């Protein structure tokens, strides 16, 4: 107990922390219930829920928090049950996406631990089971991701947003767009080198809009607003803030994927280059580099067996071509657009400050 | 126009045909809407919906039909919009399951055409894209299955069954159970040989209950009833019919997977043996065969490179051990239990006849 009243910033921070705790509690209770259901089928199946549970305990909860402040900005009550459920649903959706992404990208680690398909591979190896360990790992992780995707939707449906509601429409659109965006992403990995160099940046920009900016930023914020019954004008204002913010966020992610500190990002150095992600950073490189460098990029990106020296050369080309600096400029410009839009939103100052803090950490983070 | 009144059987058949047509129309309209949405993202992404569309035009529509007659038996109106949507949702769910199953099982064909991951692999090869064709095919099919799973749920949610309704509970349970059952299925493939022979049949029976009987038969019928507001007693009666029917259906599927005519099943001979499915048929074989035959089964099942001679020997062991005959006996016993329960259901005679015809074709089919 203190004799002084909390400052607006302090009470916002406390409210945000209470929400994060409530989302975690909701996820724990939901998954405990699912574990009981699975135990009735076979205790062998409990590992499916365990791997989901370990995945949703980590993460920055950025989507859930955007959803929360979108709700609060539109007049939703602090700590209401429906927004906790919406946050939990978004976290489950993200977990499902990560599980399948890691199979697609052949990523061995996630949030500092083994990815789900690697966990199942290890389970196979430890028991000395027959047939192929990697294949079992992938198969089990496909099913775990499907289960998690269903859980996400089950949680969302339990909110009780009507069939024709704006919130339901946003939830549906979010899922379709992110899956289409992810497909365009893997398509670009394989077909990018056959397409004109001059349009690489435009293609990469379209991909991050749908795969990332709308999914990770715009839709969560708008969803929260829609659940609270926000006006179409406020929802448009939310989009004007969150879409460029989300694009800046993804550009930051791309930079960290190549130039980030593995100790901070939790991903091995060069992972994004071995995966062959054709990001805006890569597009700018291809656009600006000389012919020999361009050819080096096209022939080396996506090779699983890249040496440290080759990774170093790819990084040098990105720096020397000015592509890294260009990406940083784009991040600044997009951030500026986003925060200008935020300043114009007709929402409570403390809530705007919370969104601003969330946005700043998203675009200037190091992990 | 005819001067004679239709017989009950004729009018039931016409009603069933009208429903199947309506479900197909609903799917076509829904997917056309999604194509428009994807076209706005990138025409490159349209292939995702195209592959789903081609998959949902085929199939026996068994789940949708069970759902329909469950609805009608509980007093639902013929051709009502909500039951058409429920049928379409079940078809989309099944399509999603097939897309991911085919990746898991490495099946090249589905419903007489290439499986979805093979379609994407071919697309890659045709364009001469870079990196790995198979890996691209799997990645794209994982995403297509995810999209289809989301579509299934979007369609179900549009029905507007309340958050706490029985129908929603059945839909949720169905998804969790089938995914857990599929996991147990792949787990049994790799861990079966390390477990006691004497419990192989019990393990395989549990798998088909959750992976298949509940998902493909019990839940669709109960879902239809629940949407029409059926009493708990009627829903229990539906389960008493549909659960053993579904088990018999899966046992028939297992027999066809080994002994079926490839020209009729659309799957290559020996496919199930190469996949290494440890079915009840396999369990009975392992239980009854002599030691050398048992060892031959354990060491050959699941090998992708099985020769025709090895497939022939596996088939012989299944016949000679009495396992095939034992499976047929189980199909008969389960069918008998199912049809006895059906006869006791308090539903209209014409509807019971429609369910009976559906059940008979499920357990005595050749494809």
Q: What is the N-to-C order of secondary-structure elements of chain A (H for helix, E for strand)? A: HHHHEEHHHHHHHHHHHH
- State Rg of chain A: 21 Å
CATH superfamily membership of the largest domain in chain A: Farnesyl Diphosphate Synthase
- The fold-level CATH name of the largest domain in chain A is Farnesyl Diphosphate Synthase
The second-level CATH architecture of the largest domain in chain A is Orthogonal Bundle
Quantity of strands of chain A, as a count:
2
Q: Order of strands side by side in the largest beta sheet of chain A?
A: 1-2
Largest interface: A-B, 63 and 63 residues
The backbone outline of chain A, from C-alpha atoms, is globular
Amount of beta strand of chain A: under 5%
> Number of helix segments of chain A?
16
Identify the CATH class of the largest domain in chain A: Mainly Alpha
Low-confidence stretches of chain A: none
Q: Give the oligomer, counting copies of the same chain as homo and different chains as hetero.
A: homodimer
Helix percentage range of chain A:
over 70%
How far the N terminus sits from the C terminus of chain A, by CA atoms, comes to: 35 Å
Sheet having the most strands of chain A = 2 strands, antiparallel
What's the pLDDT, averaged over the residues of chain A?
A: 93
Please give the domain count of chain A: 2
């Amino acid at each position: 107990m203190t004799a002084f009243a909390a400052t607006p910033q302090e009470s916002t921070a406390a409210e945000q922390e209470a929400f994060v705790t409530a989302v975690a509690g909701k996820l724990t209770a939901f998954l405990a219930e699912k574990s009981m259901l699975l135990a009735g089928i076979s205790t062998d199946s409990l590992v499916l829920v365990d791997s989901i549970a370990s995945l949703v305990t980590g993460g920055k909860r950025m989507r859930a928090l955007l959803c929360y402040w979108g709700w609060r900005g539109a007049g939703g009550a602090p700590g209401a049950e429906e927004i906790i459920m919406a946050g939990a649903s978004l976290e489950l959706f993200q977990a499902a996406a990560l599980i399948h992404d890691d199979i697609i990208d052949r990523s061995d680690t996630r949030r500092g631990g083994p990815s789900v398909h690697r966990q199942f591979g290890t389970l196979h190896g430890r028991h000395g089971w027959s047939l192929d360990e990697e294949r079992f790992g992938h198969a089990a992780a496909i099913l775990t991701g499907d289960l998690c995707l269903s859980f996400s939707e089950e949680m969302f449906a339990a909110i009780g947003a009507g069939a024709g509601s704006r919130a339901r429409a946003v939830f549906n659109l979010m899922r379709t767009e992110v899956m289409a965006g992810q497909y365009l992403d893997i398509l670009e990995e394989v077909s990018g080198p056959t397409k004109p160099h001059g349009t690489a940046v435009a293609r990469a920009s379209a991909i991050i809009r749908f795969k990332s900016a709308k999914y990770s930023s715009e839709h969560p914020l708008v969803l929260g607003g829609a659940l609270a019954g926000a006006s179409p004008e406020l929802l448009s204002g939310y989009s004007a803030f969150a879409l460029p913010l989300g694009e800046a966020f993804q550009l930051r992610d791309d930079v960290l994927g190549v130039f980030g500190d593995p100790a901070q990002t939790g991903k091995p150095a060069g992972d994004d280059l071995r995966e062959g992600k054709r990001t805006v950073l890569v597009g700018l490189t291809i656009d600006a580099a000389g012919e020999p460098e361009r050819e080096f990029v096209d022939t080396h990106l996506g090779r699983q067996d890249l040496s440290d020296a080759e990774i170093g050369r790819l990084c040098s080309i990105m720096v020397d071509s000015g592509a890294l600096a260009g990406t940083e400029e784009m991040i600044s410009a997009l951030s500026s657009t986003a925060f200008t839009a935020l300043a114009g939103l007709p929402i409570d100052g403390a809530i705007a400050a919370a969104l601003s803090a969330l946005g700043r950490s998203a675009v200037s983070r190091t992990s």
